[in-house]
Amino acid sequence: MTSAKVNLVSHPLVQHKLTLMRERDRSIKGFRELLNEIGTLLCYEVTADLPLEMVEIETPLTPMKAPMIAGKKLTFAPILRAGVGFLDGMLALVPSARVAHIGLYRDPQTLQAVEYFFKAPHDLSDRTVILMDPMLATGNSACAAASLLKTRGARDIRFVCLLAAPEGIAQFQHEHPDVPIWTAAIDERLNDHGYILPGLGDAGDRMFGTR
Ligand code: URA
């Protein structure tokens, strides 16, 4: 199977905000707000091809047929904990979306994803699922999360991140060639600890002030 597309979101607002987030001295508050804002902008991009159906409505003047998004409600699936940084920004655009929480942490020695929580709508087979995590580094967490969603029947998954390393993209496309990726940047590489270079550091720590 050829791999689904990597969509690089080059919109100037996204690029500008991402640069602000990379700056070492950006405050926790600023970092969190920017991630939230970029979440909204990425949500706009990742939903650009959702199917529409014509429905009957009445304006104050006349009945008409007008487009509405077809199908079941979207499901947003943030990978805890940094993925929640996108969530409010995305819910601002799609307030009726369902939310699946996926708890995975990265074992600091092996860099493997370890599952500690998974709560999702029961049947995902006819929903579009937007999987989100700001950093696609080794790809281990994203791969594990996509696999968990597939065990719940998900067939239309889209992965949204802020930064991706080439190694993570390769790993994700290898394991999930059916899942397209949206990212604001593809950085140079991973360092020996699995951090993205030049990157922005640990997204979770910078959001929550835990370092
Ligand atoms: N997770 C992060 O938060 N930052 C990285 O650079 C890699 C993984």
- The best one-word shape is globular
User: What is the mean predicted local confidence, pLDDT?
Assistant: 95
Secondary structure: helix percent: 25-40%
Structural class by SSE content: alpha/beta
- Main pleated sheet: 8 strands, mixed
Q: Which band does the percent of strand residues land in?
A: 25-35%
> What is the count of β-strands?
15
Which stretches are poorly predicted, pLDDT < 50 over at least 5 residues? none
CATH topology: Rossmann fold
What is Rg?
18 Å
Domain module tally:
1
Order of helices and strands: EHHEEEHEEEEEHEEHEEEEH
Q: Which CATH-level-2 architecture?
A: 3-Layer(aba) Sandwich
Bound small molecules, by name, code or SMILES, are: uracil
In whole angstroms, the N-to-C terminal distance is: 42 Å
Q: What is the CATH domain class? A: Alpha Beta
Number of helices: 6
Q: Mind explaining what this structure looks like?
A:
It is built from six helices and 15 strands. The protein has 211 residues and is α/β, with parallel strands linked by helices. The chain has one domain (6-208): Rossmann fold (3-Layer(aba) Sandwich). Strands 1, 4, 5, 6, 7, 8, 10 and 12 form an eight-stranded mixed sheet that branches. The longest helix has 19 residues, at 28-46. The chain is globular and about 65 Å long. Residues 82, 135, 137, 194-196, 199, 202-204 line the site of uracil.
Question: What topology does this entry show?
Answer:
Blueprint: E1 6-8, H1 12-22, H2 28-46, E2 52-58, E3 63-69, E4 75-80, H3 84-93, E5 98-99, E6 101-106, E7 113-119, E8 128-132, E9 135-136, H4 140-151, E10 156-160, E11 163-164, H5 166-175, E12 181-183, E13 185-186, E14 189-190, E15 196-197, H6 203-208
Parallel strand pairs: 1-12, 4-5, 4-6, 4-8, 8-10, 9-11, 10-12, 11-13
Antiparallel strand pairs: 2-3, 6-7, 14-15
Helix pairs in contact: 1-2, 2-3
Uracil binds at residues 82, 135, 137, 194-196, 199, 202-204.
